[in-house]
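**User:** Everyone, produce a chain:

**Assistant:**
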Amino acid sequence: MEILYMGTAAEERIPGMFCNCALCQKALKLGGKDIRTRAQALIDGKLLVDFGADTYDHFLKAGRTLWDIQNVLLTHSHPDHLTLEVFSSRNHWMSAETCKYPTLKVYTSAGVIEKIWRVVEARGLEKEQIEKFWEFIPMNYFEPIEIDGYTVTPFPANHARGEQAYIFLIEKDGKSLFYGNDTGTFGTEVEEWLAQNNKYIDLLSLDCTKGDIETPYYGHMSMSQGREIADRFLAQGVIDDKTKLYYTHFAHGCKMTHDELEKTAKEKYGFKITYDGFRLEV
């Protein structure tokens, strides 16, 4: 499997649209890997994870088109991960070619699906018209689902209070990746399920919104908290020294440039750092 990290930032991005902090000023001058857009990933050019407001720009930069995508995983409904208005854009009046393509399938929680339909209704769109182009499929914690050759298992994310938010195990052809951003430290039931089901993770990709700063901020992790998760997984035998360890999903509050993040992650925690446009073979 190949994962393309299309975006690697939290909602405000780096530099933040309305921010003039020291890191945002540095990022603007440095450019390159220090410019981060909102988190999104693409697996094998086929399976899209999240559908936030930067999706269109991500696909332009990757030289791709959304016509190639038939399956989307949604972690939760926060606006940096889901633009609810997008569901009116795949209709015959927006694109004359839409009717030639299969229905685009969206896999997420029942609660997020309900939010989508509320927006559709509020915009005065007909449900029957939307259903010609989109299919919404609910998922449940710890219940694997088959998606065009991939096995996807959603786990509880410690994020988005009042909503079933997900982190994912994605498997195909004997390889697996754990996509674990937008979560605070989560329960031990995750690694226990992985161990009981004889799972091995080739890539462990974890939230690092806080960088190397410890704060009580809900719903995200620091480098040390990510390392604690990795140690728990290691103790259960679901990762080993061959597993690739990466931090992703950074906020400007982490106060570190890309190079500073790389140095700290490697020297203190044994992790590597993602950036927008980063491709990794699993």
